[in-house]
Amino acid sequence: MLTRRARRIIVLSALALLAFGASALVTASSAKRAAAACNGSSARVISRYNGSTLVAQENVAYPGTTCNGDYQYNGAVLDPISDGSCAYAYFAEPPVYFATQGVSCTTGAWSVYSYHDTIGTNSVLMSVRPSYLSDIWVTSLGY
């Protein structure tokens, strides 16, 4: 039979192990997110890698006409590698909207697309990737 002290040590050890495991899980699942595609009046390129290989990119198509608050996003997606897949730009406004907005299947060629925010939030989640990778969402604001 365990003494009271032994039971206390076992319970505290189990709680410490549980806390450590939860911390490790949160750290592993909170990969760094890219900055916003549009953040007010500025824009940035979204790049997606498979390991160290660049497999998809997205950028504003016409600088100065996107990220200007008119609810219209004009983007371009690039398939930079000949791996037999295409690069896709997915947009989501949960829980109302999810769709592919842009596709590039010609290696090295930018494909232009347009997204008009009919929901009126002027904010959208974007994911740029080939079909064989899962989504990593970035937020675009003020387009």
Strand fraction equals 35-45%
Strand elements, count: 10
Any idea what the CATH architecture of the largest domain is?
A: Sandwich
Distance, first to last CA: 67 Å
CATH level 1 name of the largest domain:
Mainly Beta
Number of helices: 1
How would you describe the shape?
extended
Elements, N to C (H/E):
HEEEEEEEEEE
Mean pLDDT: 80
- How many domain modules? 2
The helix content, as a percent range, equals 10-25%
CATH topology call of the largest domain = Immunoglobulin-like
* Sheet with most strands: strand arrangement: 3-4-5-8
Largest sheet: 4 strands, antiparallel
Low-confidence stretches: 15-35
Radius of gyration: 22 Å
The computed structural class is alpha+beta
Give a quick precis of the structure.
With 143 residues, the chain is an alpha+beta fold.
Give a written overview of the molecule.
The structure is a single chain. With 143 residues, this protein is an alpha+beta fold. The chain has two domains: 1-30; 38-141, Immunoglobulin-like, CATH 2.60.40. It contains one helix and ten strands; from the N terminus they run H-E-E-E-E-E-E-E-E-E-E. Strands 3-4-5-8 form a four-stranded antiparallel beta sheet, with no helix packed on it. A hairpin with a 2-residue loop joins strand 3 (46-50) and strand 4 (53-60). It is extended and about 75 Å long.
Task: Write the SSE topology.
Layout: H1 4-29, E1 38-39, E2 42-43, E3 46-50, E4 53-60, E5 72-78, E6 87-93, E7 97-104, E8 110-116, E9 123-130, E10 138-141
Antiparallel strand pairs: 1-2, 3-4, 4-5, 5-8, 6-7, 6-9, 9-10
